[in-house]
């Protein structure tokens, strides 16, 4: 008898009509009489289902809800093991443990069947227990001959359900399904059976009926979320992405029927491991071994839901390392990008930038178009150069999109930010197919083919085996060339040379002249200039800049370009050295004649090629009078001096260069040619605030001129003005110092002055050289100076006899010679005197010897090298004094007569000390001139005595005349009128006691 508490579907069961029930029972008993049960009686104490024992004499355990784990018509526990062979195929091994199956597909339907099942407590909404299915295993349920047996119906239904699953995964081969004796469930083994004799275990649902099926499934490429196209080699592309460090998410949709409990196992391909799992009740399973990996497990329990349950098996795969290949691992310090920039200034009016972006690897998010995997379907944080080649040859990326969005403007923007107003238009990037034949690129490019040297295989655009698999060793290249633009080297480096302040205002032409003047400078540029060229979002970028110099410049190694770089390790190359390609060479001789063919051995060589400094001086000393002044107890000298100093080139002291150095900047200028100095002044002329400084020419606070600052401004006009005023300042200083000296007595220096002028500050051509000198002229106009002792003769005799020498007073008298009234008279008188003394000297010379001769006088004269400047001296001696038998050992000396006076011309030797010998002749002319005053004094004394006697006689005669007039007047006689008014005026009395008078008009 069946014990049934309630149906699992809990229907509202109504009592059947007793009449109908009696008929059914009668039919059952009648059938038992006609068809006796063949398998015998059941064991004592075991209940049997009437439907099994009475319909075909079988045995089925009674139905008990406690044994039924499903509230639905089916109770099937399936295990699906999916092994991904590759991206094209996976193998499915599925098992079903059927404890209960839906009655309708099995044919257990209809009024008669339902009523029979209900008698055993199996009501509508209940499935067919495994015992009932086994009981009719080889028979049709409806009992009709030719109907399909239960086992075939079940197999057909199973294949249909599995086919539905396969269709969701991809196309599959024909399943190979068979009945199984055991299946795996929850980590254990479950015994199965299809033999009706195994039903007597007290549970109508046990043992389950089990099947196993094996099938190969072709996976739809869309499951791997890569862009399907004719060029796609899915397996290689997928594997390459994983090797490159990518992770790809795959989804397998599943649908779990009501009354099913499904467990899914997925084994990744041999080169992959599951990084993560999601969806359903998932678990990531670790698998140990030499190269551990992860697989996935999902469970879906739909035993108690009335409707199917749909979801996805989601998992993300990464690369599984193996004996030969490891996944690409990016070192955070690795260089991602090389920006190789060639800035060509060989034509400054049409400068260009050639930019080659060498891509080793690049972050996917930094450039639009590099997203190989759709968003949310995986990730490839970094695409290596091999990855770009792979994506290109598999049609996964659009190269034009990448090149069009590559951040190229940073290079032009860097220059524009440095040079206001500059606009640089970069051209579109073009991909370089193969850089192997370009020495500037090297092995790489879109079509670079790997060899066995750098990869485990050869002949592939991207490497999938070995230590370099999907690496960044062989880059890809993008090239862009700018439109021509105007940019001078001055614009580029002007603000980079703050330490060389005199170059801050130079223009293009100036810089060309400066660097070709023999100057070379080196500085270290701030790396921020290059760092600004880094494309945004790509921090691991190095910048290499080759600056091709204009044709007139070169680096300090004689090369036509300068290499600068910004390095990630901080070892930046910012050394910027510049000099001229046709620089001024100071190693040449300069001759007095200015000949272009001057050699060190030339007769008129001024400076030899070994002399860094080349200056010359011409000294013209005109001593027009040298005599003794008895009245002023001293001597009189009348002279004029002209010194012309010419500067061709100046050796720059190392100390000066050192003072111009800074931590990062140094200057090399062995020689400063005159033209460079002119250029520097010209540059300073254009500056807004030229450099200036002040200094004092002396430090004696008691002298007024020492209290005044001498201000010099380093411009053309500033130097000229300073030079002109400097002579006046020196003159004032000399006068002040002489006046302050206690030894000095009466000082009159009104006629003494020093004039200085500077000329040649403007260059006449565009070539830097040292031919055209800068000239400094120093002149002392003709001045007549009397230097004598201001003490009386008594004081002098007292000092001589042991008196205090501090009481000695020296008078200096140098009056101006520009009296408009006196000068014409004096000039006439002096001319007359010169004529007189000259006549006397000629007469004396005609009958007497030359005069007083001092023989064999010699003097040593240092060389030009010793005193630091070549000297050319012109000495004009006063009349009556001359040199004879003049001889120079190394120098050049000559003499001539100019206006009756001897002119000595001497040029010092350049590098040998000289010895000058001569005889000094003091001629009778000069002696007579010196004695003439004494002779005149004697004549004047005699004349004075004669005149005195004459005056006395005249006085007596006048007295006699007056007496006579008085007598005659007393006698009223005529008296002549005698005038008492003067008729002449005394102007001056010369040193020779000659009286100069002027007739007084009536």
Number of helices: 21
Q: How many β-strand runs? A: 46
Structural class assignment: alpha+beta
What percent of residues adopt helix (DSSP H or I)? 10-25%
Count of domains: 5
Specify the overall morphology: rod-shaped
Computed CA radius of gyration, to the nearest angstrom: 63 Å
Mean pLDDT level = 77
Major sheet summary line? 10 strands, mixed
Strand content: 25-35%
Q: List low-pLDDT spans.
A: 1-46, 818-849
Distance between the termini: 191 Å
Description:
With 1002 residues, the chain is of the alpha+beta class. It folds into five domains: 187 residues, no CATH class; 99 residues, no CATH class; 244 residues, no CATH class; 206 residues, no CATH class; 152 residues, no CATH class. Strands 29, 30, 32, 35, 36, 37, 38, 40, 42 and 43 form a ten-stranded mixed sheet that branches. Strand 42 and strand 43 form a beta hairpin. Helix 19 packs across helix 21. The longest helix has 47 residues. It is rod-shaped. The N and C termini lie far apart (191 Å). 31% of the residues are buried.
């Amino acid at each position: 008898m069946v014990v049934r508490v309630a149906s699992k579907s809990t229907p509202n069961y109504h009592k059947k009509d007793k009449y109908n029930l009696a008929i059914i029972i009668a039919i059952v008993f009648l059938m038992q009489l006609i068809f006796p049960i063949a398998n015998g009686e059941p064991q004592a104490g075991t209940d049997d289902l009437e439907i099994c024992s009475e319909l075909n004499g079988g045995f089925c355990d009674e139905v008990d809800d406690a044994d039924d784990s499903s509230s639905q018509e089916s109770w099937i526990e399936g295990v699906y093991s999916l092994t991904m062979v590759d991206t094209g195929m996976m193998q499915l091994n599925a098992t079903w443990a059927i404890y209960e199956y839906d009655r309708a597909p099995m044919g257990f339907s209809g009024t008669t069947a339902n009523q029979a099942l209900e008698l055993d407590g199996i009501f509508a909404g209940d499935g067919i227990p495994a015992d009932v299915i086994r009981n009719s295993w080889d028979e049709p349920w409806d009992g009709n001959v030719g109907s399909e047996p239960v086992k075939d119906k079940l197999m057909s239904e199973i294949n249909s359900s599995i086919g539905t699953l396969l269709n969701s995964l991809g196309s599959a081969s024909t399943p190979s399904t068979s009945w199984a004796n055991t299946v795996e469930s929850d980590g254990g083994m479950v015994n199965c059976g299809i033999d009706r004799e195994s039903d007597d275990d007290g549970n109508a649902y046990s043992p389950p009926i089990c099947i196993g099926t094996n099938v190969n499934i072709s996976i739809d490429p869309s499951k791997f979320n890569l862009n399907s196209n004719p060029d796609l080699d899915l397996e290689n592309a997928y594997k390459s992405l994983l090797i490159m460090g990518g992770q790809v998410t795959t989804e397998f949709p599943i649908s779990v029927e009501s009354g099913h409990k499904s467990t899914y196992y997925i084994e990744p391909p041999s080169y992959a491991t599951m990084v993560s799992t999601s969806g359903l009740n998932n678990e990531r399973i670790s698998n140990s071994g030499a190269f551990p990996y992860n697989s996935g497990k999902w469970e879906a329990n739909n035993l108690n839901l009335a409707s199917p349950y749909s979801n996805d098996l989601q998992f993300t795969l990464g690369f599984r390392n193996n004996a030969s290949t490891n996944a690409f691992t990016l070192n955070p310090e690795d260089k991602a990008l090389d920006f190789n920039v060639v800035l060509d200034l060989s034509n400054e009016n049409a400068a260009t930038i050639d930019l080659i972006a060498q891509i080793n690897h690049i972050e996917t998010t930094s450039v639009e178009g590099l997203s190989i995997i759709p968003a949310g379907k995986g990730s490839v944080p970094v695409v290596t150069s091999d990855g770009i080649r792979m994506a290109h040859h598999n049609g996964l990326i659009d190269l034009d999109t990448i090149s069009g969005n590559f951040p190229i403007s940073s290079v032009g923007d860097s220059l524009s930010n440095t040079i206001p107003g500059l606009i640089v238009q970069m051209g579109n990037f073009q991909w370089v197919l193969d850089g192997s034949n370009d020495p500037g690129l090297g092995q790489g490019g879109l079509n670079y083919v790997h060899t066995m040297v750098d990869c485990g295989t050869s002949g592939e655009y991207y490497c999938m085996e070995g230590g370099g698999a999907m690496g960044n060793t062989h880059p890809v290249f993008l090239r862009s060339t700018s439109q021509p633009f105007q940019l001078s080297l001055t614009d580029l480096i002007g603000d980079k040379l703050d330490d060389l302040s005199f170059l801050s205002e130079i223009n293009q032409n100036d810089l060309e002249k400066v660097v070709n003047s023999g100057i070379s400078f080196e500085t270290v540029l701030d790396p921020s200039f290059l760092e600004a060229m880094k494309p945004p979002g790509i921090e691991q970028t190095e910048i290499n800049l080759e600056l091709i110099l204009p044709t007139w410049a070169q680096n300090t190694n004689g090369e036509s370009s300068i290499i600068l770089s910004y390095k990630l390790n901080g070892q930046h190359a910012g050394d910027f050295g510049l000099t001229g390609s046709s620089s001024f060479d100071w190693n040449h001789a300069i001759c007095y004649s200015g000949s272009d063919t001057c050699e060190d051995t030339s007769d008129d060589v001024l400076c030899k090629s070994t002399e860094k400094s080349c200056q010359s001086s011409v000294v013209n000393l005109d001593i027009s009078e040298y005599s003794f002044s008895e009245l002023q107890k001293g001597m009189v000298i009348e002279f004029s001096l002209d010194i012309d100093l010419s500067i061709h080139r100046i050796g720059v002291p190392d100390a000066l260069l050192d003072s111009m150095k800074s931590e990062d900047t140094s200057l090399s200028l062995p020689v400063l040619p005159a033209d460079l100095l002119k250029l520097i002044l010209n540059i300073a002329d254009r500056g807004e605030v030229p450099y200036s400084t002040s200094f004092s020419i002396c430090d004696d606070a008691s002298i007024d001129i020492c209290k005044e600052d001498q201000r010099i401004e380093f411009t053309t006009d500033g130097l000229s003005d300073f030079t002109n005023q400097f002579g006046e300042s020196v003159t004032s200083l000399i006068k002040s110092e002489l006046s302050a000296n206690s030894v000095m007595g009466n000082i009159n220096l009104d006629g003494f002055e020093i004039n200085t002028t500077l000329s040649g500050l403007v260059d006449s051509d565009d070539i830097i050289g040292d031919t055209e000198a800068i000239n400094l002229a120093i002149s002392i106009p003709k001045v007549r100076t009397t230097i004598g002792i201001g003490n009386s003769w008594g004081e002098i005799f007292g000092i001589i006899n042991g008196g205090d020498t501090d009481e000695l007073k020296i008078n200096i008298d140098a009056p101006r010679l520009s009296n408009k009234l006196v000068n014409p008279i004096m000039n006439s008188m002096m001319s007359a005197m010169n004529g007189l003394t000259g006549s006397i000297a000629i007469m004396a010379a005609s009958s007497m010897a030359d005069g007083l001769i001092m023989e064999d006088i010699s003097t040593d004269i240092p060389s030009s090298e010793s005193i630091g400047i070549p000297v050319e001296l012109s000495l004009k001696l006063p009349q009556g004094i001359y040199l004879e038998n003049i001889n120079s050992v190394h120098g050049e000396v000559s003499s001539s007569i100019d206006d009756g006076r001897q002119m000595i011309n001497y040029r010092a030797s350049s590098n040998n000390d000289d010895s000058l010998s001569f005889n000094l002749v003091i001629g009778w002319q000069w002696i007579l001139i010196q004695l003439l005053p004494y002779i005149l004094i004697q004549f004047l004394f005699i004349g004075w005595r004669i005149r005195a006697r004459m005056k006395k006689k005249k006085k007596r005669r006048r007295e006699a005349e007056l007496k006579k007039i008085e007598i005659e007047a007393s006698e009223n006689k005529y008296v002549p009128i005698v005038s008492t008014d003067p008729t002449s005026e005394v102007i001056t009395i010369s040193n020779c006691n000659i009286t100069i008078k002027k007739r007084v008009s009536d």
